[in-house]
């Protein structure tokens, strides 16, 4: 079994640079079956767009750009592989005034052969018989150029398959009308959970009103939450991790309901199928924060179907 997506290089060896949470297609997945699986991922993206659903995908611009026909550059590679791009930049200026690299120490900065480490942590030959070719000062331009080309095209076939699958659901000729950021938003929704945006798409079922003290406390607590905590809250009340791109895409608004137990020791009760929560009338912000955090970190499953036989429904 080989995973279709692998963590980006920035997330490895303790983490370095930005976008450490993102994933990249696995370069090792090149078989016909793998390519058809990537096409299916593209179809899922198309269904998400057509049906106003959200996919919880954290993919870099290196993937999104080709889907809308934009060219990928080294800047895109740098957002997920800062070490490799740092090496390319250093080698590109070798011998120039101010550079630390010269003919005398060049071989200290390059590997022993024309190879690179791919996104899947496997060695990739930059050219035929690359393992038998040693990078030298004389062939440095060839080495740098091959390294750039390989980094830019390492997952080209996988992304092309995703685009092909996407094109079976959404007219592919329309994709260049959007930026890659817009396409990501249409497929995945808003990555950052804006509490004011959620509040503007919230309803209150009587006797709960927008002006109730515990409702105001809820918005304060959510604004104090980190991005990951907000994501957990959204998953707790809706089973999803992102909000729709447009207000019109909310098939149901977030709803705050009355709760039978209104003590500071009560826990909120969510109804993921209806995007709603029974919110106790907490009188202390600290109590609300504590109970909501407990609920969202300990209730990861959106239902009890998998454990229904072990539930004592009489309690």
Shape: elongated
Give the overall pLDDT as a whole number. Answer: 90
Q: Under the CATH scheme, which class of the largest domain?
A: Alpha Beta
Number of beta-strand segments: 8
Spans of at least 5 consecutive residues whose pLDDT stays below 50 are: 303-315
Read across the widest sheet, the strand sequence of neighbours is 5-6-8-7
Question: What is the tally of helical segments?
Answer: 11
Provide an overview of this structure.
This protein has two domains: 1-188, Hect, E3 ligase catalytic domain fold, CATH 3.90.1750; 195-310, Hect, E3 ligase catalytic domain (Hect, E3 ligase catalytic fold, 2-Layer Sandwich), CATH 3.30.2410. It has helices spanning 32-51, 61-67, 74-78, 82-92, 140-153, 156-167, 180-188, 195-200, 213-224, 227-238, 285-298, and strands at residues 5-7, 23-25, 115-117, 123-125, 202-204, 254-257, 269-271, 276-278. It is elongated and about 80 Å long. The strands form three sheets. Strands 5-6-8-7 form a four-stranded mixed sheet. Mean pLDDT is 90; it is low at 303-315. Helix 1 (32-51) crosses helix 6, helix 2 (61-67) packs across helix 7 (180-188) and helix 10 crosses helix 11. The protein is of the alpha/beta class and 315 residues long. It contains eleven helices and eight strands.
Ordered list of secondary-structure elements with their pairings:
Blueprint: E1 5-7, E2 23-25, H1 32-51, H2 61-67, H3 74-78, H4 82-92, E3 115-117, E4 123-125, H5 140-153, H6 156-167, H7 180-188, H8 195-200, E5 202-204, H9 213-224, H10 227-238, E6 254-257, E7 269-271, E8 276-278, H11 285-298
Parallel strand pairs: 5-6, 6-8
Antiparallel strand pairs: 1-2, 3-4, 7-8
